[in-house]
């Protein structure tokens, strides 16, 4: 990795500190250009109410359930799952322990201040471009798999139950991702283990990013997280239970996701888009903030092992759908994203079909 990734180009400002300071006007560097503001492609309230990403009950994996997952992956790239087998209590406790973490004194959190070389720890920006517009959020990022990258000493020591809860939570996330990987493989007409093997079997990567979106005095001018597609394989998002904010792109609209209680929001990342030869879509999404409530979300990223080339499954390459011209490793791919920060889908779109 290049040396420019060793440190941030500008001093880091915690968005939470800005929010807590009581400013009425947000600094210029959080003010997005007119076309990137929340209202730019306004989806009317009617659209919000009527259209929602699919909600899928995993209790009974009937043909119908599998078919609904299949169309969600093709048409939306996003769906919510209920009856997923993960303890609701564990979900709530893990989210609340992270809320407590963000409310600890700044000095305590600063011990975990991160750098762009690994992103691990407490952070307030993605990307290292000097002078870039910034998002209205802070986060904590940690590695879980492969175990060689897992270092619990880098996870918060306080609140005292944090490390234990993160361990338990991540273990459940790995199980649920394994289950979904099988379903997606079968739905693609591949053998059950295909995607898992393509990800490197036991050597898959997994990490957790906890996003903290403080209250914002001018929510119409900024975003909590700019439009992006997730670079990895698959994401399981645990949203805040009472504050919405995630928006998913649907043609020219942004659909605000209404979280279903105790559900996870599942989305396809760029690597599964490539493996499926774009049958499954890694869809752009972003986060809006508001002036009344802070918001916490946990994004669990399930990724291919970093050093294996990711390319379309040969079975899915047809005359009508020639192979995307890519066999990049996830490590190579991610280093672009980490330099540039969130920028729509430009990265995966640049993998052009050869014809
Ligand atoms: C992410 C993400 C959405 C949210 O972390 O990649 O898209 O609602 N988060 O926080
Ligand atoms: Ni995302």
From TrEMBL:
Q: Do you know which InterPro entries this protein is assigned to?
A: DIOX_N (IPR026992), IPNS-like_FE2OG_OXY (IPR044861), IPNS-like_sf (IPR027443), Oxoglu/Fe-dep_dioxygenase_dom (IPR005123), Plant_2OG-oxidoreductases (IPR050295)
Entry superkingdom: Eukaryota
GO annotation terms (biological process): coumarin biosynthetic process; defense response; negative regulation of defense response to insect; regulation of defense response to fungus; regulation of jasmonic acid mediated signaling pathway; response to molecule of fungal origin
List cofactor names only.
Answer: L-ascorbate; Fe(2+)
Domain Fe2OG dioxygenase positions? 203-304
Write out the coiled-coil annotation as residue ranges: none
Family matches, as PANTHER family: OXOGLUTARATE/IRON-DEPENDENT DIOXYGENASE
Q: Which family does it belong to?
A: Belongs to the iron/ascorbate-dependent oxidoreductase family.
User: Could you tell me what this protein is called?
Assistant: Fe2OG dioxygenase domain-containing protein
Natural source organism: Cinchona calisaya
């Amino acid at each position: 990795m290049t040396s420019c990734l060793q440190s941030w180009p500008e001093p880091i400002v915690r968005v939470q500190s800005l929010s807590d300071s009581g400013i009425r006007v947000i600094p210029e560097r959080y003010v997005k250009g007119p076309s990137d503001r929340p209202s730019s492609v306004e989806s009317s309230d009617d659209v919000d109410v009527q259209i929602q990403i699919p909600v899928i009950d995993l209790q009974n994996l009937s043909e119908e359930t599998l078919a609904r997952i299949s169309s969600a992956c093709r048409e939306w790239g996003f769906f919510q799952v209920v009856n997923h087998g993960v303890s609701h209590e564990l979900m709530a406790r893990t989210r609340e322990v992270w809320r407590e973490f963000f409310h600890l004194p700044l000095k305590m959190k600063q011990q975990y201040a991160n750098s762009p070389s690994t992103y691990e720890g407490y952070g307030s920006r993605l990307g290292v471009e000097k002078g870039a517009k910034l998002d209205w959020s802070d986060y904590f990022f940690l590695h879980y798999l492969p175990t060689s990258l897992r270092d619990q000493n880098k996870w918060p020591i306080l609140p005292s139950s944090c490390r234990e809860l993160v361990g338990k939570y991540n273990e459940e996330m790995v199980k649920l991702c394994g289950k979904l990987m099988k379903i997606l493989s079968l739905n693609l007409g591949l053998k059950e283990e295909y995607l898992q093997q393509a990800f490197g079997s036991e050597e898959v990567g997994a990490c957790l990013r906890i996003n903290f979106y403080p209250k914002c005095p001018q929510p119409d001018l900024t975003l909590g997280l700019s439009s992006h597609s997730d670079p990895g394989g698959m994401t399981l998002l645990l949203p805040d239970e009472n504050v919405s904010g995630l928006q998913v792109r649907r043609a020219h609209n942004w659909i605000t996701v209404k979280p279903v209680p105790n559900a996870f929001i599942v989305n396809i990342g760029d690597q599964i888009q490539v493996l499926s030869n774009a049958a499954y879509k890694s869809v752009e999404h972003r986060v809006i903030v508001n002036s009344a409530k802070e918001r916490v979300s946990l994004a669990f990223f399930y990724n291919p092992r970093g050093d294996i080339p990711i390319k379309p499954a040969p079975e899915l390459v047809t005359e009508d759908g020639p192979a995307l011209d890519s066999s990049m490793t996830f490590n190579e791919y991610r280093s672009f994203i980490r330099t540039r920060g969130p920028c729509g889908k430009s990265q995966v779109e640049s993998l052009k079909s050869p014809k």
